[in-house]
Each structure stands twice: as structure tokens, then as C-alpha cells.
Specification:
The protein is mostly helical and 59 residues long. The protein has helices spanning 14-28, 34-51.
Length: 59
């Protein structure tokens, strides 16, 4: 199940996305699998849009 919003959904508040990021890290025990990393990257982009900032990719 994807946690990223579709184009037809409104943008979630940055605080909600931040909570999803915290939850992801807690669930993963501090180690992200490749799937977790992909979800984390999507969440960072979503958080950036909600917070009105830009995010630079590590790659």
C-alpha cells in the first residue's frame, strides 16, 4: 500500500508526513530495506512539498 498521495488527493500537512517518516524509521528498527528506502524518498518529497522546501536526493 502506497502512502504517497495521488494527484487527485489534497496534500497532507507536513506534520502528518513527518509522523509517517518517524513511523517508517521506528518500524524498520533504523535499517531501511530497498522498499523502505523508496518509501522514505517518496515521503521526503511529499514532506518537502507540504513544508514548502526542497529536498536533494542522496543519489
Amino acid at each position: 500500500m502506497s502512502t504517497s498521495p495521488s494527484s487527485s488527493c489534497s496534500v497532507r500537512p507536513a506534520s502528518v508526513v513527518n509522523e509517517a517518516i518517524r513511523d517508517l524509521w521506528q518500524r524498520s528498527g533504523g535499517y531501511l530495506t530497498p522498499d523502505d528506502e523508496a518509501e522514505y524518498q517518496r515521503l521526503l518529497v511529499e514532506w518537502s512539498a507540504a513544508a514548502g522546501t526542497s529536498v536533494r536526493s542522496a543519489a
